Amino acid sequence: MGAMINVTITKLPASEIEITGEIPVDIFMAGWSDALKRLGAKAEIPGFRPGHVPEKILNEKIGDDRILLEMAEEALQKTYPEIIVTHKIEAIGEPEITITKIAKDNPLGFKIKTAVLPEFTLPDYQKIIKEIGAKHPDESEVADEEVEKAVEEIRQIRARESNDPTAKDLPEVNEDFVKKLGDFSSVADFKTKLKANISADKKNKSQEKRHLAIIEAIGLKSNLAIPKLLIDNELNKMLAEMRSQIERMGLKFDDYLIHLKKTTDELKQGWQEDAVKRVRFGLVVRKLAEAEKIKPDHDTVHAEIKHILEHNPELKGEVAEDRIHAYVENVMTSDLVMKFLDGVK
Predict the structure, then answer these.
(1) How far apart are CA 328 and CA 312, in angstroms?
(2) Cα 182 to Cα 199: distance, rounded to the nearest angstrom
(3) How many CB atoms lie within 10 A of CB 92?
(4) For residues 321 and 309, what is the distance between their CA atoms, to the nearest angstrom?
(5) 122 phi and psi angles, rounded to 5 deg
(6) From the candidate CATH numbers 1.20.1300.10, 3.30.830.10, 3.30.70.1050, 1.10.10.10, the one assigned to the domain spanning 7-116
(7) What does the alpha-carbon distance between residue 227 and residue 18 come to, in Å, rounded to a whole number?
(8) pLDDT at 317
(9) What residues contact 279, with CB distance under 8 A and at least 6 apart?
(10) Nearest one of 34, 36, 61 to 46, comparing CA atoms
């Protein structure tokens, strides 16, 4: 937005802060026309195509309140990151944003509550990494029985997928069968590659188990106090993940809750411990990256952002791209920290 916005920052308990302030009237009202255009692009008004409604008619149909709310949401999405950068606030998680005053030709009043990076001291993490790492070695050996079991499961899947309702026997594992599954030259080639895939999967899972155990141990031996706001954010994220998964299966989330005989609050209550672990994991990884000066390469980050935007053009825009940048940098930093854990012997 360019102009400096005066804010008051108040420290709260449990690594949280509250930011209060106002967006000046000239900056706020400058968004009127753009807000009207965005709303007009989605508005269905008889006699007009979406996006082609005269501004006066659109204003009358939508009403000032809806336009002002649209302006406020856009203004605050842009203002919050600017405040964080200007005041060097190490904010983490999703903020709770409240509009305290909104009216045409007036400043926009707001209140923002957010968690900030907790101050905590890492224990002797090199020692913990070595101790936990020794208890969780890589597992990649695959017995012949495991390969045969996997082959049997593939045969059963193929039998279920068969369009022949009279087929009772499982398909024979021969050259024709494996060539239909992929780029395999023979049954032996298929089993060799299947064994390699099983081995890689076992190794990945054992590494993930080790990483989780190490990070959890470091977190528990530190003086880390986790902000409640972060736990609540994580619970909301877990709920959104479940909702998305259920809806991808073609089911209604509300119907699923009825089937479970649970409310969303009851689900969250059951996830409390996992949410705390997930938040602790993220905070410890971030602290380790800081301690070891681990940071992803600038060009690699931007190449990945470019790749994401090329395949998802609808995400282009200042606010969305800032979020993508933060996401990519976090994922890459986490991967580098995991490699660091594996390198400590």
Answers:
(1) 14
(2) 19
(3) 20
(4) 8
(5) -75, 145
(6) 3.30.70.1050
(7) 13
(8) 74
(9) 226, 230, 231, 234
(10) 61
Contact 102, 72 (CB under 8 A): yes
DSSP conformation class of 136: S
Task: State how far the Cα of 234 lies from the Cα of 113, in Å rounded to an integer.
Answer: 16
- Separation between Cα atoms, residue 184 and residue 175, nearest integer Å: 8
Per-residue pLDDT of the chain (345 residues; tens, 9 = 90+): 545 688 999 999 888 999 999 999 999 999 998 998 888 777 777 767 666 677 778 788 888 999 999 999 999 999 998 999 899 998 988 899 999 999 999 999 999 999 998 989 999 999 999 999 999 999 999 999 999 999 999 998 888 877 655 556 788 999 999 999 999 999 999 999 999 999 999 999 999 999 999 999 999 999 998 988 899 999 999 999 999 999 999 999 999 999 999 999 999 999 999 999 999 999 999 999 999 999 999 999 999 999 999 988 887 776 677 788 889 999 999 999 999 999 998
At 336, list the tokens: 């580098």
Q: Domain ranges in the chain?
A: 7-116, 137-214
What is the residue whose two structure tokens read 């992803």? Answer: 296
Beta pairing partners, 18? 10, 113
What the block records as the tokens of 319 is: 């606010």
Output the six-digit token pair for 21.
């302030």
Q: Where are the beta strands (DSSP E) in the chain?
A: 7-12, 16-23, 91-101, 108-116
119: left (phi over 0), alpha (psi -120 to 50) or beta: beta
Length reported for the chain: 345
pLDDT at 283: 94
Q: Measure Cα distances from 222 to 164, 216, 218, 273 in Å.
A: 61, 10, 6, 18
The amino acid occupying position 151 is: V
In one-letter notation, the amino acid at residue 97 is I
